Hints:
By secondary structure, the protein is mainly alpha-helical. 37% of the residues lie in helices and 7% in strands. The protein has a two-stranded antiparallel ribbon with strand order 1-4. It has a two-stranded antiparallel ribbon with strand order 2-3.
Amino acid sequence: MQTTTPPRRTIRLTRRGRIALIATGAVMAGTAVAVPLLSTDTPEVKRPTSLVVPEGWRASQIYAALDKALAVPAGTTLKALPKAGLKLPSDAGGNPEGYLFPATYPLDDKATPQSLLRLMADTANRKFNGAPTAAGAQRNAMNVYQAVTVASIVQAEAAGPTDMGRVARVVFNRLERGMPLQMDSTVNYALNRSTLRTTAADTRIDSPYNSYQRMGLPPTPIDNPGEEAMKAVVDPPAGNWLYFVTVKPGDTRFTGSYEEHQRNVAEFNRNQRSANASPSPAK
C-alpha cells in the first residue's frame, strides 16, 4: 500500500488518465413541448411543460436551461437567485451548487425562476438531510455539505454507477492519507469548461478548486450530484485504492499501487495513440 505521494508532475489521478473526457451534458434539458396546431399555416408553440435536470449539471447549466424553458432573457435566473430565499447550509455561503437536485420539474403557468430554484433546493434538502446521509457523512468524519461535495466529484469522475463507490473510496483514502485529490474535474470547474485536454499548466492555476495544488476538498460542490453518487459516498466499499484510470470504455482500473497505476496509464495512452492513428471511416 502506498502512503506517500509521488512527484506531482508525474501523477494523473483521474479515470481519464492524461486526457479528460468529461461528458458535457450537450443534450439540453429534455422538456416536454406541446405544439397545438391552431391552423394549417401558423402553429402556436407553448412553453415546455416540464424541465429535466440531469445528474452532474452545474448550476450555470441549470440557470441557462431555466431561462430557455421559461422563455426569459438570458441571465434572468441568475439575477433572481438572491431573491429566491433558498435554504442552504451555512457552509455554502449562498452558493446553491450541489443543492439544485437533478429531477424532472413541472413548468406550470405560475412557475418562475425563484419558485423552481426553491423547489430544487427543497428537494435536495429532503434527499440529503435524512438520517442515512448524515450517519454516512459522520462515519467519514465530515458534515453533510462536505459529503455532497464528495458526491459532486464522484458524479463528475465515475464512468458510471458501478464505479461510483470505488471513486468515493479513492477520495476518502486520499483525504485520510493527507494526499492531494488531484482530480481533473475540479480543474475543469475552475476553468469553467468540461471537455479539455488537461495540461501541466492547467494543474498550476491559482484557484481554490485546483485539487492538484490545494489540499482537501474544494470549497463547494462542483456540480449537482444525483442519488446514486450520494449513495456511493454514504456507503462506499472497502478498499485500498488510491488511483484510477479508464483504460478503455468499460474498463476502469482501480489500484493502491502507484507503479500499477503508471502501467494502466501507459496502456491508456497507447490506446489513445492507436485510436488517433486509425483512419476515419468512409462517409
